[in-house]
Amino acid sequence: MRNLTLLTDLYQLKMMQGYFLTGKTEVVVFERFYRVNPFDSGYSIVAGLDHVIDYIENLSFEADDIEYLRSLGSFREEFLTYLTTFKFCGDIWSMPEGTVAFPKEPLLCVKANRMEAQLVETAILAFMNHESLIATKASRIRYTAPDDLLMEFGLRRAQNTDAALYGARAAFIGGFDATSNVLAGKIFGIPVVGTMAHSWVMSFPTEIESFRAFINIYPNDALLVVDTYDTLNSGVPNAIQAFLEAKAAGIVMEKYGIRLDSGDLAYLSIKARQMLDAAGLTDAVICASSELDETVISSLKMQGAKVTAWGPGTKLITADGSSSLGGVYKLVAEYGQAGAIPKIKISENAEKVTTPGFKQVIRIYDKATGKITADMITLVEESYSEDKPLILRDEIHSWKRMKLAPGSYRLRNLMVPVFSQGKCIYARPEIQSIKAYCQKELMTLWEAYRRFINPQLAKVDLSERLIELKKNMINELRVGKP
Amino acid sequence: MRNLTLLTDLYQLKMMQGYFLTGKTEVVVFERFYRVNPFDSGYSIVAGLDHVIDYIENLSFEADDIEYLRSLGSFREEFLTYLTTFKFCGDIWSMPEGTVAFPKEPLLCVKANRMEAQLVETAILAFMNHESLIATKASRIRYTAPDDLLMEFGLRRAQNTDAALYGARAAFIGGFDATSNVLAGKIFGIPVVGTMAHSWVMSFPTEIESFRAFINIYPNDALLVVDTYDTLNSGVPNAIQAFLEAKAAGIVMEKYGIRLDSGDLAYLSIKARQMLDAAGLTDAVICASSELDETVISSLKMQGAKVTAWGPGTKLITADGSSSLGGVYKLVAEYGQAGAIPKIKISENAEKVTTPGFKQVIRIYDKATGKITADMITLVEESYSEDKPLILRDEIHSWKRMKLAPGSYRLRNLMVPVFSQGKCIYARPEIQSIKAYCQKELMTLWEAYRRFINPQLAKVDLSERLIELKKNMINELRVGKP
Q1: Residue B154 DSSP label
Q2: Quick one: three-class SS letters along A270-309?
Q3: CA–CA separation, A342 vs A158, rounded Å?
Q4: Are the beta carbons of B161 and A157 separated by less than 8 Å?
Q5: Which residues in chain A are closer than 8 Å to B218, comparing Cβ atoms?
Q6: Which of A253, A292, A482, B45 is found 20 to 30 A from A10 (Cα to Cα)?
Q7: Full DSSP string of B342-374
Q8: How far lies A380's CA from each of A415, A472, B122, B412, in Å?
Q9: What average pLDDT does chain B have?
Q10: Distance of residue A76 Cα from the nearest chain B Cα, in angstroms
Q11: Across B335-350, average pLDDT
Q12: HEC string of A407-422?
């Protein structure tokens, strides 16, 4: 585990020193949320919490960190001394990894003294923004190919090491089966897959010799890449011949087939399927890789492509087309002697005005279908019971209301405790459980929310109390001002 | 330094075992190149070599790596034993970091036994693809703002830790002045910058109190964020008042000013400049941050924005709009008893046919202007002299020729030796030198190549010998085939 304590913006450390010197060390609450779904999607998947836990538990300024900060000339000795014993001692709540989330919802909350809460902002955002993005992309690809094998092949195009490692993990959570990334497999326990590249084929005098040699060594996982010279005139016929020879020689091949890596994947897979079937190789797998994502795969499927194993790489691992999730981390409350004082940030851009207060997200499920009816953002101290009618109000258009009858709905608090007074109190699930949970979460979305183009957006309301609080605070700050 | 030996695709290890078992351990040559410039740009910047050197020098399978590979069930004990003593013993050539490069050119060459050359493919691609991409993006932003301060602010939106760290380094090489990323500053020696966020302002009862407190602690670097409540009606007037008070109190402010983080940056900066100037604060800096990149900055400048310090974040650090560089790594030669045998990969997509042979790139400069006339890809054994006329031929359109008179041009080999028999023999330059070299490299591009929209593309030709070799190999493989 590298020490990532300095993985923060310099302004965090300068503000920390400012709080230290001015005695502004009250407990405050920050929350992470985002404003717009990535990929014009109807949702996002929460990911990155496990990474955040590692990071928080390992926060510690080492001697060389202090030395470096001293060299910058902006920090005073008393502050540097404080940093030498710095530990995160606060509380964190978060939605579990794999949870389906929507814009404006608090996804993670940090309650800690102002200096601690400020330091951790940047890394928390970086980890969760990235990992959520990739998990969301992966869930979209899974949606296009519910029954196929999905393999993450993006390492060589990833935005460096951690993007590849945590990206492979996030893709698995989002619904992928495996990765080509060996280190990700080792670190996270994700299944790894891979067979051969063109360079294997080119290392032999002829294509068929390269195929024979490979089957001989890996009879149980012989996916032969067939486009080194000429897919339909050389690659596929040679693969068929090599498979038939192996069968004739009594070699039992558990999993075998071909990989298409260029050309028209619809046409080539249909032709290759016919050729394989005609040779009696009906159980040979056809795998494809080459600039794949949910759009390409669904288009290929529409045209009857005979591919059942897909290896998306670049477009998945870099979240092509939506390469960042704009998660932010905003101050929402500070604790004075009278308890929590809500805080708000106003902006000329109305959608950038924050919702004040220390909050929870309550998910409301339709009892009959198990699908999500709406989410309601509340103050943490509010409580709701499934035995009473529930009224949902729209924040802006107050005439938009929805009344739910007792017994027709189920409630669930989405954020759960993760750290308490600096100690992790969260039972970190195995990666397989996170993936299974995520796939269940996706089942709670109405189909309309999963559409790629113009999806229906989930209803996310503020509680009555929160609407009033926000309105009053805006009025106080802006009404009557020039 | 983390052990990244397993940062590779599983198929590399499976092919390695295949070569090991079939005795195919000849020395081979692989080369890295890319086919299309990122961002529809006229060039790319080479970056990531320093990272590659660290990686190659630290390659070593530890006991737990071997244990993990054993657990996969695909590897034999004799191969695992070989891995325990594995070291990279080959040669590597590369264009230095900061070099301007063009499509199809070999940027890095690995000559090593087949197993070693295969293992390192994936990590080399991942590092150099990513870092080149960000350096290129940064150089474009620098082009729009040649005299301004450029600060990289992307950490929170980066695709995880390494994208942020190596991205900050690549941005510096491409022409940035500083980063907000403290860890990048510590590791790479890049200047770090940062002042305050909205949360600082919100931590005080009033905006002006927050400004006073900040100036008091950081008089030499007081960039006040002015959009927490209302930029022109509250933020800027309060900043002016706080600066005037500080001056009146005899505080000497070395660098001070305001940061605009939302709203219309052209309008707000012009208004703010007027207000600051009217108050006599003509040396106050106006800094902007908010979804910036080369397109946004040049559009703002066209409208007269009064910003002289820019903090691009998300769009720079994720290479928005072109989130990957499609660099590939292809087998181009193998050594038999008779020396190097060139290798080729054919493809239905004509532009995907590789150029065979162990190669060098010779850059041809116009002696009068110092600008690039063309690049010529040659076999390593070819030699050219500036004293003779030079004829450049187009590979496809053989009627396109250019003849250069002796004395009118200068030649330079772009790839330099980096590893020899496993030892790094390259004097790794300081990051400041790499940046300076890169800025000089950019000066060798004609303005037409630097245009954002529809740039002129540099002339990259194959040598006469290479054109013949490639043509003959294609004919041999494909002509007369069905």
Answers
A1: -
A2: HHHHHHHHHCCCCCCEEEECCCCCHHHHHHHHHCCCCCCE
A3: 40
A4: no
A5: 14, 18, 74
A6: B45
A7: E-----SSGGGPPPPSSEEEEEEEETTT--EEE
A8: 10, 19, 48, 67
A9: 95
A10: 10
A11: 84
A12: CCEEEEECCEEEEECC
**Orientation angle between helical segments B207-217 and B236-248, nearest 10 degrees:** 40
Q: Which helix (H) or strand (E) holds B448?
A: helix B447-450
pTM for this one? 0.97
C-alpha A242/C-alpha A212 separation (Å) is 6
Give dist(CA A360, CA A49) in Å, integer. Answer: 17
User: Chain A partners of B322 at a C-beta cutoff of 8 Å?
Assistant: none
Residue in B190, B174, B290 with CA at minimum distance from that of residue B231: B290
Q: Is the confidence at residue B355, as pLDDT, over 60?
A: yes
Nearest Cβ partner for B199 among A214, A331, A346: A331
Compute chain A's Rg from CA coordinates. 27
Which of A4, A6, A10, A61 should we substitute to test contact with B (largest number of B Cβ atoms within 10 Å)? A10
- Sorted by sequence, the CB contacts under 8 Å of residue B140 that are 6+ apart come out as B39, B41, B293, B294, B452
d(CA A466, CA B344): 67
Q: pLDDT > 90: what percent of chain B?
A: 91
CA distances to A26, A118, B136, B323 from A111, in Å? 10, 10, 40, 35
Give me the DSSP letters along A68-114. Answer: HHHHTT---HHHHHHHHT----SEEEEPPTT-EE-TT---EEEEEEH
Backbone angles phi and psi of B477, in degrees to 5: -80, -35
For residue A173, give how far its alpha carbon lies from the nearest alpha carbon of chain B (Å). Answer: 17
Distance CA B294, CA B452 (A): 9
Dihedral over alpha carbons B299, B301, B306, B310 (to 10 degrees):
80
Helix crossing, B63-71 with B77-84: angle to 10°? 160
- The angle at the Cα of B157, spanning B152 to B162, to the nearest 5 degrees, equals 75
- Compare CB distances from B331 to A199, A331, A478 and report the shortest one's residue: A199
Kind and range of the H or E run holding A150: strand A149-152
Strand partners, B113: B27
Say yes or no to pLDDT of B479 above 70: no
Q: Are B10 and A185 inside 8 Å of each other by CB?
A: yes
For chain A, 482 residues long, the average pLDDT of each consecutive 10-residue run is 92 98 96 96 98 97 98 97 97 98 98 97 98 98 98 97 98 98 98 95 95 96 93 96 97 95 95 98 96 96 97 96 93 90 83 91 97 97 94 85 94 98 98 98 97 94 95 81 48
Strands A256-260 and A309-310, by their bridges, are unpaired
Q: Which amino acid is at A266?
A: A
Phi and psi at A220, nearest 5°, equal -90, 0
Tell me which chain B residue has its CA closest to the CA of residue A187: B68
Dist CA A281 CA A240 (whole Å)? 8
The CA-atom distances, in angstroms, between B475 and each of A106, B74, B165, B381, B463 are: 63, 39, 47, 23, 18
> What phi, psi does B55 have (nearest 5°)?
-60, -50
Q: Quick one: residue B357, left, alpha or beta (phi over 0 = left, psi -120 to 50 = alpha)?
A: left
Q: What is the band of B482 on the pLDDT scale with cuts at 50, 70, 90?
A: very low
Q: Which of chain B's residues have a Cβ under 8 Å away from the Cβ of A30?
A: 199
CB contact under 8 A, B10 and A230: no
Rounded to whole angstroms, the maximal C-alpha distance in chain A is 89
Tokens of A480: 């009557």
Q: Is B479 helix (H, G, I), strand (E, B) or coil?
A: coil
Which two structure tokens, joined as six digits, stand for B99? 């070099």
Q: Which residue of A has its CA nearest to B65?
A: A186
